[in-house]
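[job 0412] stage=complex_fold ligand=flavin-adenine dinucleotide status=START
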Amino acid sequence: MSSTDGRYDVVVLGVGGMGSAATYHLARRGLDVLGLERYDVPNAMGSSHGVTRIIRRAYYEHPSYIPLIERAYDLWDELEARTGRDLLHRTGSIDAGPPDSDVFSGSRRSCEEYDIPHEVLTSGELTERFPGYRLPDEYVALYQPDGGFLVPEQCIVAHVEAAHAEGAEVRARERVVDWEATADGGVCVRTDKGEYGADGMVIATGAWTAEFVDELSGIAVPERQVLAWLQPTAPDRFAPESFPVWNFRVPEGRFYGFPVYDVPGFKLGKYHHREETVDPESWNREPDAEDERLLRRFAERYFPDGAGPTMRLATCTFTNTPDNDFVLDTLPDHPQVAVGAGFSGHGFKFASVVGEILADLAVVGETDHPIERFRLERFG
Ligand SMILES: Cc1cc2nc3c(=O)[nH]c(=O)nc-3n(C[C@H](O)[C@H](O)[C@H](O)COP(=O)(O)OP(=O)(O)OC[C@H]3O[C@@H](n4cnc5c(N)ncnc54)[C@H](O)[C@@H]3O)c2cc1C
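[job 0412] stage=complex_fold status=DONE, emitting structure tokens
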């Protein structure tokens, strides 16, 4: 049901990766929900564009993400079935580097701890099985067959379609200007077009979150990222059937990539690309020659059959926390306000479950999901 009197059960600020999921999960509980998005649904202004996002069970960042990823997979499958959209492509995933590297050893630790099926391959075995890859001889790789990629713009559309079907109202091209807590324990949200009251609120404004949450000023920090799509010279080696998504730890840094999908090139990026923190309102969205050089040099060394002419370059923002872990919590002085932020370049795969968590937090102030690691209080 949509509200007729300008008052809602819950207002969601930002209808990107996380906000679209929260809007859906709130609406499916029968609540009056309003989602407000300053750009389009979906858009290429924040963090959830660029055709593909890796999803993987092998989680080198920390094993505490594993219970969440299990639920995220289930919810993506459910959303696909419900909307009939193709959202999740299973290609398998490779996490590789020197044997003692964070990427390889962390992935192995999480697979062993949670009994996740996996294989360890030498560099030679990796190239024999997936000929696009060329790693130094002493490197090792962990292969996990459930890894793959999501199609982020389609995921947002699917969440909004499903939210609409449950009666949610979503308004694009309406920018939230500010909000305040009201004496009745609710919130008042002001936009460039009007004012709305609600009992609860979800803040999911990505790179802009510090604008609305003082506690996250200097904590959730936007960073410029660049993606490249290069035409493979041996295309059959970079097709989804023969080329798992990957994460590598190499002397040049931590890189990741995807098979050819929807753009005539294989896609790669470097975590924390050139370490440029930015103001989300004004930053250089245009990729330049140095961005391209950095990614091409890497591809030429580790994917020599993939480093043909450039097909596309794009920029995007990470929003990093000091420990690269997410923020999922209610605000200390406002228990009716839930925030999902600081996804530090690895959040999209969790969007489906984050939507469920944010709905729990906004409605009842707590969740059964294990989110202790993601509380605001860790920043003091
Ligand atoms: C290059 C790149 C590669 C990545 N690769 C992966 C990957 O492989 N796997 C993975 O899991 N994750 C990956 N990530 C991370 C993941 O994409 C992000 O964690 C995720 O998209 C964050 O979603 P979000 O909802 O927080 O932000 P967004 O999707 O940007 O949503 C925030 C929304 O809020 C809106 N908004 C902001 N201010 C206002 C306002 N005042 N009023 C109304 N609306 C507002 C914005 O317009 C935006 O639509 C990657 C990120 C980047 C940039």
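The mean pLDDT is 96.
[job 0412] exit 0
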